[in-house]
């Protein structure tokens, strides 16, 4: 995919040079058209409108199906299928209704198409089973060619957004989208998914007999989730190519977003000199959970820490910025570019509970959105070495816009760039030390990426060794003596712009 480039318009947002109309000067020295020319222009416009009105009336009064459709639009207002428009507001998912009368003509042709298909299509059963409203909506969204802009009905939105609060009802697994397929990143410990036989890397082919081909990540999350005690049938393809139909009974899933777990080195020995923190997603509680664990690391006298964001699908933007800031001593966390090319900078305040720790961040192809923000920011500020594989490449800010019927449109409102102005969308964040794990690596207890992280922090890492799995000749040195002193252009100001989440 081609590199994204963002170049704000020259002259700032208030500049309109090169686009302003220039009126010729009048002979008498005054600017603008004469009173006589204005009067003549008005009469010409009235005449043209009258003539056009007669022509339009003849078309509308024609005694055919199209005439009846057009008459209903003219006499009865906007067609029922035209939804109320929702405009951005201070509250991301708050409904904002606007007058749609001026837009009716843009969508009246859809009513015509539906009426013709209903009357003439050769396979009426297929047409009658079609949700024409949702099909039209999805057609518009598909034409945008943006996988992050998604329409979700009210119930699916409720289910899909629950885990931002730290709990939900579902199967207990994180999923991601890889080459259009819905893939299990990891089932949670003691979850229904794990107990039923769901494994990391499983591709979900069908849900309750319905193919997942063409599904968005949000659709998959919404469908797989459901009330506690209900069952969902998943046809999965394991990493060895075997397909299996697995029935999972949903339950209430309580997931801490940050965990400190015991780790072992390549020889199987427990590691006590290096801390390990797993961040599964960025929620409202992530920062506080992290601070508690960092205090424990300090009390234990630890000076080195591995932060694992593998499989982290992202989450809340503010939570991402605040959490990342705990490892930085002031500086830009990310740059956000909106549709007009305007830049908004999210910066960290001075100080942080993890500033004094030497860091390694583990990333992989399932690290998306907020986890990519964290990894790129810590790398750009010289605070961490990245080990693993290139991340997903989800560099888009999405917000939910609630529509008049309770459904929600997730809209891509901006792209974000790293502190050093590198794009993320479609590119991802590359590791400093690239280590790939074989498909059966986790199952065999061989977390090679973690082993290399431990060896790097201990000064034992040899990139040329046969069992390192590294494709890099030299590790990157981390300098913590100097931090960039960036100008803080703006803060997040408590905004809750939500990245598209993808936990199950």
Q: What can you see in these coordinates?
A:
By secondary structure, the chain is an alpha+beta fold. It folds into three domains: 77-143, no CATH class; 167-254, PDZ domain (Pdz3 Domain); 258-458, 2-enoyl-CoA Hydratase, Chain A, domain 1, CATH 3.90.226. The protein has helices at residues 35-60, 65-76, 104-120, 124-128, 132-143, 154-160, 192-196, 217-224, 286-299, 317-325, 370-380, 448-458; strands at residues 150-152, 167-170, 173-178, 181-187, 203-207, 210-211, 231-237, 243-249, 251-254, 258-260, 275-279, 304-308, 331-338, 343-348, 358-363, 384-388, 396-402, 408-417, 433-434. Strands 3, 4, 5, 6, 7 and 8 form a six-stranded antiparallel β-sheet that branches. Strands 10-11-12-15-16-19 form a six-stranded mixed β-sheet, with helices on both faces.
Layout of helices and strands:
Blueprint: H1 35-60, H2 65-76, H3 104-120, H4 124-128, H5 132-143, E1 150-152, H6 154-160, E2 167-170, E3 173-178, E4 181-187, H7 192-196, E5 203-207, E6 210-211, H8 217-224, E7 231-237, E8 243-249, E9 251-254, E10 258-260, E11 275-279, H9 286-299, E12 304-308, H10 317-325, E13 331-338, E14 343-348, E15 358-363, H11 370-380, E16 384-388, E17 396-402, E18 408-417, E19 433-434, H12 448-458
Helix pairs in contact: 2-3, 6-8, 10-11
């Amino acid at each position: 995919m081609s590199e994204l480039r963002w170049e704000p318009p020259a002259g700032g947002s208030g500049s309109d040079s090169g686009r302003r109309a220039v009126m010729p000067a009048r002979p008498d020295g005054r600017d603008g058209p004469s009173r006589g020319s204005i009067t003549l222009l008005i009469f010409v416009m009235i005449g043209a409108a009258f003539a056009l009105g007669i022509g339009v009336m003849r078309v509308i009064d024609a005694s055919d199906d199209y005439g009846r459709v057009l008459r209903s639009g003219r006499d009865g207002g906007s067609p029922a299928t035209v939804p109320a428009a929702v405009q951005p507001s201070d509250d991301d998912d708050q409904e904002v209704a606007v007058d749609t009368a001026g837009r009716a003509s843009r969508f009246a042709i859809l009513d015509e198409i539906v009426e013709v298909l209903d009357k003439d299509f050769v396979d009426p059963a297929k047409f009658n089973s079609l949700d024409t409203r949702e099909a039209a909506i999805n057609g518009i969204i598909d034409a945008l060619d943006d996988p992050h802009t998604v329409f979700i009905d009210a119930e699916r939105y409720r289910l899909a957004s629950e885990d931002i609060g730290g709990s939900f009802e579902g199967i207990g697994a994180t999923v991601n989208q890889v080459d259009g397929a819905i893939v299990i990143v990891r089932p949670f410990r003691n979850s229904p998914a794990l107990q039923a036989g769901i494994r990391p890397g499983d591709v979900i082919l069908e849900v309750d007999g319905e193919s997942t081909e063409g599904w968005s990540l949000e659709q998959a999350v919404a469908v797989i989730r459901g009330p506690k005690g209900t069952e969902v049938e998943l046809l999965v393809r394991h990493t060895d190519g075997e397909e299996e139909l697995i029935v999972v009974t949903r339950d209430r899933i309580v997931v801490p977003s940050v965990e400190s777990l015991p780790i072992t080195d390549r020889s199987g020995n427990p590691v006590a000199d290096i801390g390990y923190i797993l961040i599964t997603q960025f929620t409202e509680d992530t920062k506080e959970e992290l601070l508690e664990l960092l205090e424990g690391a300090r009390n234990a006298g630890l000076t080195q820490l591995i932060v694992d964001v593998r499989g982290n699908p992202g989450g809340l933007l503010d939570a991402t910025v605040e959490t990342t800031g705990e490892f930085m001593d002031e500086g830009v966390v990310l740059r956000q570019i909106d549709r007009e090319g305007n830049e908004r900078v999210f910066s960290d305040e001075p100080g942080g509970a993890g500033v004094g720790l030497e860091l390694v961040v583990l990333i992989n192809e399932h690290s998306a959105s907020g986890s990519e923000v964290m990894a790129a920011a810590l790398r750009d500020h010289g605070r961490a070495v990245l080990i693993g594989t290139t991340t997903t490449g989800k560099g888009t800010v999405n917000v939910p816009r609630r529509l008049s019927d309770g459904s929600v449109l997730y809209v891509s409102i901006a792209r974000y760039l790293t502190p050093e102005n590198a794009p993320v969308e479609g590119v991802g964040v590359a590791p400093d030390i690239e280590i790939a794990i074989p498909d059966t690596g986790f199952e065999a207890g061989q977390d090679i990426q973690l082993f290399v992280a431990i060896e790097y922090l201990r000064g034992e890492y040899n990139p040329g060794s046969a069992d390192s799995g590294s494709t890099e000749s030299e590790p990157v040195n981390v300098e913590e003596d100097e931090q960039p002193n960036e100008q803080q252009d703006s803060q997040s100001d408590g905004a809750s712009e939500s990245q598209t989440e993808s936990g199950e």
